[in-house]
Amino acid sequence: MKILSQIIIPIFVFFIIFYGAKKHVKVYDTFLTGAKEGLIMVFHIAPTIIAMVFAVNIFLDSHFLEGVLSFLTPILTKLNMPIDILPMALLRPISGSATLAIMNDIFINFGPDSFIGRLASTIQGCTDTTIYVLALYFGSIGVTKTRYALKVGLFADLMGIIAAFIITAMFFG
Amino acid sequence: MVNIIWASLIFIAIIYSLITGNISTINNGILTHAKSGFNLILEMLPLIVLWTGIMKIAETSGLLEKFSKLLNPILSKLFPSIRKDHKALGYIASNIAANMLGLGSAATPFGLKAMEELQKDNPKKDTASDAMITFLVLNTAGVTLIPTTVIALRIMHGSLNPTEIIITSILATTISSISGLLLDHHIRKRAKK
């Protein structure tokens, strides 16, 4: 599998350029045209990225989430909920790098083959950073009225996390 | 909506740090995090420029159109509002394929390009179109077949079977995507009535 993941991009690049040359496309000139569009694209998304990274990171710095969770812990323990997974579930739509760090901690504390380790792996793999993706994609084209996009995105995240819990329990329970 | 979330994150951070006496961390953070955002852009820049260049070749040679035709039966069901020969479909198909293979760095430029193409047909430029929302639902649900980062971390921490979570991830992401698409479909149908 390691070989497969290493070979897929080179083959992809080779094939596109090969096919282009075969169809008499001026591959180098066309590449430059596309690359210029890419540069403009980055210029458009730069403010969104700075705004989101800034807000998410100072939110993480404040340790607000840990505060709320330590307040809720006694109740959740009584309900038999795996508390250590909660920060990950709550942060999944906001920050991909934060949940990756939490997953890393879970692996250190409980091991990757523990129930919670497998659950964390499944949650990390089953959904993407909804709020970041929405801000980035809509920000890049200047759409400010996002209608029901966030609602549907967060609903999909919630269902994914619930499904991850049930499926992990069924497979490895 | 993003306005509210963005402001809430900042308000909560500052007020909570004032209460807990942790304000010096925030003070330092305000200055350093703008820089980490900039660093992220610098990391993305060469990848985006490279992939949009490569994909322009695929677009010009007609390869992208061929690829989207291959996936047309599924795409036309998911995006009933887009014409069959629309350029956006090729980029949507490539974005989904790259996501599935765990090629995140390539998926983002394809996705941004798809949004650009969808925006050309959007009558209200400041408002999201139906197709854009469906596309983003697919993206935020993150249809990934091989979660490469997770597997790498599991190997690093000495998992006996690092890839065993592939199947659970695929099942969970399928449920997440289908629920998102169903809700999206339901809202659109109700709006038409």
Shape field of chain A: extended
What structural class do the secondary elements of chain B suggest? Answer: mainly alpha
Overall average pLDDT of chain A: 88
Helix content of chain B: over 70%
Helix percentage of chain A: over 70%
Tally of helical segments of chain A: 8
Category from helices, strands and their pairing of chain A: mainly alpha
Q: What's the quick description here?
A:
The complex is a heterodimer of chains A (173) and B (193). Chain A is 81% helix and 0% strand.
Folded structure, characterized:
The complex is a heterodimer of chains A (173) and B (193). Chain A is mainly alpha-helical and 173 residues long. Chain A folds into 2 domains: 1-44, no CATH class; 63-172, no CATH class. In chain A, 81% of the residues lie in helices and 0% in strands. Chain A has helices at residues 2-22, 27-61, 64-78, 86-91, 96-110, 115-126, 130-141, 149-172. In chain A, α5 (96-110) packs antiparallel against α6 and α6 packs antiparallel against α8 (149-172). In chain A, 47% of the residues are buried. Chain B is built from 9 helices and no strands. Chain B starts with a helix and ends with a helix. The model of chain B has no long low-confidence stretch (mean pLDDT 89).
